[in-house]
Specification:
This protein is of the alpha+beta class. It contains six helices and 16 strands. The chain has two domains: about 240 residues, 4-Layer Sandwich (Deoxyribonuclease I, Chain A), CATH 3.60.10.10; about 80 residues, no CATH class. Strand 6 and strand 7 form a beta hairpin. It is globular, with a radius of gyration of 25 Å.
């Protein structure tokens, strides 16, 4: 069954390392009155991390997860969550294109909408800056549907009141502004999104759209010790949702023999490693458990597998009499 809706809720923030903020973000989601349909998080990887993040520990029930550059020593990584009741497909990344982005195409009632999660490093090269502008131009002019580019663009020199920059004409700031103007795009954020004590507040996180459909932008407190605000906003956009399509683990069909063998092999390796640090041991255990879940426990996109089997044909009167006779005689049937 499909339900028609007209508001698409989106939450975005730069978490500045997600490893020690996963629980805090889960608590945050429980405090908001209406869950978002889309969540975009940038700078997932910590600058210095001991244990890489696994996709399985980042999943949120009720959402499909799309990732890029996860546990990458060079890049910071992006997560994009989409409500399972929305029809979303990931757009294939351009080869040798802009370094850090992820994009999905979501089916709407009238138009599709392309949502791109962007992270541009403040140390981005001139070549990468050019590729960012090329990517925005390509999406705007090639892909059908409405467009949203949301993320941390790291252009503190741009004054968004008049779309100007104190930098030179050939600087990345002015070239980015020109790209948006040439593609007739709208930049919706007008207040500072990053604030740190002793430093000037800046608009680093942007919501760029192909049309004027964004409303109700809220600036919420950062997650943990991140210094970027959470941006919560709605879009006027017609779409349909599907009921009862939550992806769940189907434990009844799990290959637990293989799972046990995986754990047995892991245990032998740990004995050989002679791990004595508790934190390191727990990190290793969590990683192998997540790997086993992904490999040996299938998933179901509905609750149909939970339903008990039912008779395909009505029971005949003769069979009913025989069943009653056996019960009266105290026989097991």
């Amino acid at each position: 069954m499909e339900i028609e809706r007209k508001k698409l809720r989106i939450i975005y923030t730069n978490v500045d390392g997600f490893t020690n903020k996963i629980k805090e973000f889960a608590v945050f989601l429980k405090t908001i009155s209406k869950l978002p349909h889309i969540i975009v998080l940038t700078e997932i990887n910590a600058k210095n991390y001991k244990y890489p993040l696994a996709e399985s520990e980042l999943k949120i029930e009720g959402y499909n997860l799309f990732t890029t550059n996860l546990s990458d020593n060079i890049h910071r990584g992006i997560l994009l969550y989409v409500d399972v009741n929305l029809k979303a497909t990931e757009i294939e990344k351009q080869k040798e294109g802009f370094e850090e982005y992820i994009a999905v195409n979501i089916t709407g009632k009238v138009n599709n909408i392309i949502v791109s999660g962007i992270y541009r490093s403040p140390n981005s090269s001139q070549t990468n800056n050019k590729k960012l502008n090329e990517y925005i131009t390509w999406v705007t002019n090639t892909l059908a549907g409405d467009k949203i580019f949301v993320g941390d663009f790291n252009f503190p020199q741009i004054n968004w009141e008049d779309w100007s920059s104190v930098s030179g004409k050939e600087n990345a700031d002015n070239k980015f502004v020109k790209c948006l103007k040439d593609n007739f795009l709208i930049q919706n954020v007008e207040k500072a999104t990053r604030a740190r004590e002793g430093q000037k507040s800046n608009i680093l996180d942007l919501i760029i759209t192909s049309d004027d459909f964004v409303e109700e932008i809220e600036f919420l407190s950062p997650i943990g010790n991140s210094d970027h605000a959470i941006l919560s906003f709605s879009c006027n956009w017609n779409y349909t949702t599907l009921n009862d399509n939550t992806v769940k683990w189907n434990y009844s069909k799990g290959d637990f023999d293989s799972f046990r063998q995986l754990m047995k092999n892991w245990e032998i390796k740990q004995i050989m490693k002679n791990i004595t640090d508790v934190e390191e041991g727990w990190g290793e255990l969590k990683s192998i458990m997540n790997e086993g879940m992904e490999k040996y426990i299938p998933k179901s996109d509905s609750n149909n597998w939970r339903k008990k089997a039912t008779w395909k044909h009505p029971i005949s009167n003769v069979m009913k009499k025989n069943i009653k006779k056996n019960i009266d005689c105290g026989l097991d049937i």
